[in-house]
Amino acid sequence: MKETLNPNEDSCLEGQNHFVCDALDWGIALFDLNGQLKYCNQAWQQALVAYQENSEKITLAELFPPFTDFASLTAQGKEFKTVLPAHNNLSPTLSISLKEIQNFDSKAFLCTLQNIQLQQDWQETIPSHFQILQTLIESIQYPIAYISESHFPQIWNSAYSKFHFHYFGQAPSHDWSPIHHLPTEQKMYWEALIERVINGQTKIVTLPIEIHGLSYFYKITLSPYRLGKNILGYVYMAQDITANQKALLALKKSRKEQKRAAEIGKIGLFDWNFSSETISINRELSEMLGLKTRKLKINCQDFLNRIPLPQSLFKEDHFELTLPAQVSSSQNTAWFWVRGECLEKNSLGQPQHFAGSVLDVSERQKMETRLKQALKEEQEYNRIKTAFIGMVSHEFRTPLTQILSATQILARGKIKLRPESFDLHLQTIQKAVKKINRLMDKSLFLSKHTALPASENKKLSLKPLSLQALCEDIQQEVQEVGQQTHTLILEIEPKESVLWLDQDLIWYALSNLLLNAVKYSPPGSEIRLKTVWKQNTLWIYVYDQGLGVPIAEQSKLFEPFFRGSNVQAIQGTGLGLSIVKNAIELHGGKIHYEPQLPKGSCFWIELPCKLSKELDDEYPSDH
Description:
- It is a single chain.
- By secondary structure, the protein is an alpha+beta fold.
- It has 5 domains: 15-120, Beta-Lactamase (2-Layer Sandwich), CATH 3.30.450.20; 140-240, Beta-Lactamase; 274-357, Beta-Lactamase (2-Layer Sandwich); 367-450, Signal transduction histidine kinase, dimerisation/phosphotransfer (DHp) domain (Helix Hairpins); 459-615, Histidine kinase-like ATPase, C-terminal domain (Heat Shock Protein 90), CATH 3.30.565.
- 39% of the residues lie in helices and 26% in strands.
- It has 16 helices and 23 strands.
- It has a 6-stranded antiparallel beta sheet with strand order 13-12-11-16-15-14, sandwiched between helices.
- The longest helix has 34 residues, at 362-395.
- The chain is rod-shaped and about 180 Å long.
- The model is unreliable at 1-12, 451-457 and 615-623 (pLDDT under 50).
- Keywords: Kinase, Phosphoprotein, Transferase, Two-component regulatory system.
- Its EC number is 2.7.13.3.
């Protein structure tokens, strides 16, 4: 062609209209009244090249020689259409009309050029397309229909016929539009929706539908029906999703009830997708963790810092455990029962998504701890009871046997026994009775001071005691019981001190330590009792050269009825050291054991107390 008008130049068409014309798929051209080409779009040029193979013939007379014969017709305002002679397998339709053109000096011929053969081919394919469409939709179990742009059904399957009849009360037909018989509001809604579909969009809506008094849910899918570049209408498909919708509603109701139950039962919930850096939690769990803002999301690391779940748990499909948790910044610790379930796995079969529940079991844990402690105490009580019965049967047997033998001899001898022999048997009885008394005293003391809780335990009966005199009295008793077999040395500092102490408790404590030293040390060995006063504390040391205590057994040394494995051959109750420990602890003191090398033991006591003159004001004379 000689000329294609540029819209950027002085043109008979505005630039915007030029681009609109270029977007069309049929040829458009403007010729002046002399038949000279003034404007054409790209489709016009392409059509001429395809038809004439010569784009130089740009005048209307050159394009169509009879032009001069119908000039008078177009001058009268009529439109002229003709099919150009077939050439190159094309038979274009030429349409010519005389129009007033803006920005043009006078009227002009507006010509359009379309390939009539393509139109005929397209129209011939429609019936075959419809036949294929009819076959396809009949094979679908859901109601489906092809509906024209004017909303009249054209093709439908048997399922659609039943659906249409149940809903509208009559069978579908080509001349009855369902939309036209809807209430105004529904009609406006569907018309707006279908307009978008005709413009190329697919729309899916879920609607409740009532049929014969029963409620159903249908998913309606509207898709544009295209043939080439043309949209002939839309495809309507209705899918019954009543069962799914009811299940979904039941699930929502269940979740709502679960949420309500979680709120009432204070059950924390969490949802953790490993691809996210945060974990979703409910308000209950937020409160459990002591989050000030009651956030419903928490950083993963912060979650694990507060609830230290081992990473190995998240390799399993489910888990449950009880563990301590950090509930707030105040370092308070609670006990949580946590249960988790894997919801999703990745392509490697590894857990990717977990959900779970959290229950605060702190009170239950405390109760279990108390129960375990009570069980432990009961087991200890049973152990002590069994040991006590064994001790009584063993330790009481010897003195009772001695008493029985002595009384039998006295009964048989009567007046025949010499005085010295009679006195000997009386001494045997007296010693046996004293031994039984000491055993009973130990048992009663232990029962009295260990059976009650600490808060109900015996109160101290403090009296001003001379430390030197007390230790000398204890020394004398120990030497009598021990039959002067050991050397007992006293090192008392300060010698003239008077201390406020419970005389009975201190007597029991020191006498038991010294008697144990006598019992387990070789005859003739040295035993020392040393005291030191320093900073309101009396330090007492008892040294012996006895068997000592095996290292593995030293932790049990002060338990009732415990006896070392290296002293089983020596008679004893196992009560002595437990009595000493109770007596010292009632004073607020402590007792310790330390082995001596190469042999022997050292028991040392730290006993808080005050000199009597320091307590003159606190304890009046009549106390």
